[in-house]
UniProtKB/TrEMBL annotation:
Keywords noted in UniProt: Acyltransferase, Transferase
SUPFAM superfamilies: Acyl-CoA N-acyltransferases (Nat) (SSF55729)
Name of the featured protein: Acetyltransferase
GO molecular function: acyltransferase activity, transferring groups other than amino-acyl groups
Length: 312
């Protein structure tokens, strides 16, 4: 079965799984990629393994291993899990030839639609773990009055004087998420975060807001509007896609309503600019963020299965 036939079967299968999944055409090789295929039990799989590398000082380095081998897969037939298992065998053979054993800065990652569960057991058996999720919240147009107020909480656009507060909140968030494998703390993290956040301060169209609890700045939220989300908008079947970059609340203010107020404010802003769906990443094992985001109307759309080191 050729790759286009497999892609067509894959699309037909997923159409019954999740209406918010985008179209997924046949996999086209890119520079440095390796095409893979496999068959099993009258089912077939096509895969594309892509190697990417990030420097330790890059803005992306906290969120990934420095070297990542990512597998994109298309599965069709009556037993897609068997096809994926056979494809993973081919991929492991490739990884053993190109990835150094035991290197924690080399990861193998498979990104799968969250509701496409066949194959999950096969990934677990091979040492993969579900680490990260892209969650989606379809638009929910609010009334012009906006979300209800939270007693004691005031939300305002971040200003230049808020840089130290914002950096501290982002560092606290990264340290917490590092426990769950979705973040790697890097040397110079504070300086990198400061350089990134300083670009968000004082913008005419704010993308970063500070939450004050009885006058103390104890939370923040960062967003990207639809004209800034070309890097991720193809992950959902929507035309205008927003991205919630991060939401952080200082430890003393957790469970006070600050986080809920910040999320509601961000959703109001997204709704006002005509966003059709909002995406965000969160650590799946995080016992705070997972229930929090789903209480705000999100649900899993894509799951990152990771094995790190890529070869053990």
């Amino acid at each position: 079965m050729n790759s286009h036939a497999i892609a067509a079967g894959h699309a037909e299968r997923l159409a019954t799984v999740d209406a918010l999944l985008p179209e997924m055409p046949a996999l086209e090789p890119v520079e440095g990629s390796v095409s893979l295929s496999a068959t099993a039990d009258e089912s077939a799989a096509a895969g594309l393994s892509v190697r990417t590398e990030a420097g330790p000082d890059s803005v992306d380095s906290p969120w990934r291993a420095l070297v990542e081998h990512r597998l994109e897969a298309r599965l069709t037939g009556p037993r897609p899990e068997a096809a994926l298992d056979a494809l993973l065998t081919r991929w492991d053979e490739h990884l053993m030839a190109v990835a150094p054993p035991g290197d924690v800065e080399t990861a193998a990652t498979v990104v799968r639609p969250s509701r496409d569960s066949p194959g999950s057991a096969e990934l677990l058996r091979r040492g993969f773990a579900p680490v990260l999720v892209i969650a989606v919240r379809p638009a929910d147009r609010l009334t012009m009055t906006g979300p209800p107020a939270t007693p004691g909480v005031h939300i305002r656009p971040a200003e230049a004087d808020d840089l130290e507060t914002a950096v501290g909140l982002e560092l606290e968030l990264q340290r917490y998420d590092a426990q769950f494998g979705s973040v790697t703390l890097r040397e110079g993290a504070k300086e990198a975060i400061a350089a990134d956040l300083s670009k968000q301060l004082g913008r005419e169209n704010p993308t970063l807001w500070i939450a004050e609890l009885y006058g103390r700045p104890l939370g923040m939220v960062r967003v990207q509007f639809p004209d800034e989300t070309s890097w991720i908008c193809d992950r959902v079947a929507a035309d205008r896609v927003g991205y919630l970059s991060s939401l952080a609340v200082a430890e003393p203010a957790r469970s006070s309503g600050v986080g809920t107020a910040l999320a509601a404010h961000a959703h109001q802003v997204f709704d006002e600019c005509g966003t059709e769906a909002v995406l965000l990443h969160h650590a799946l094992a995080n016992p705070r963020s997972t229930p929090f985001w789903y209480a705000q109307g999100y649900r899993p759309l894509w799951t990152y299965w990771q094995r790190r080191p890529a070869v053990r």
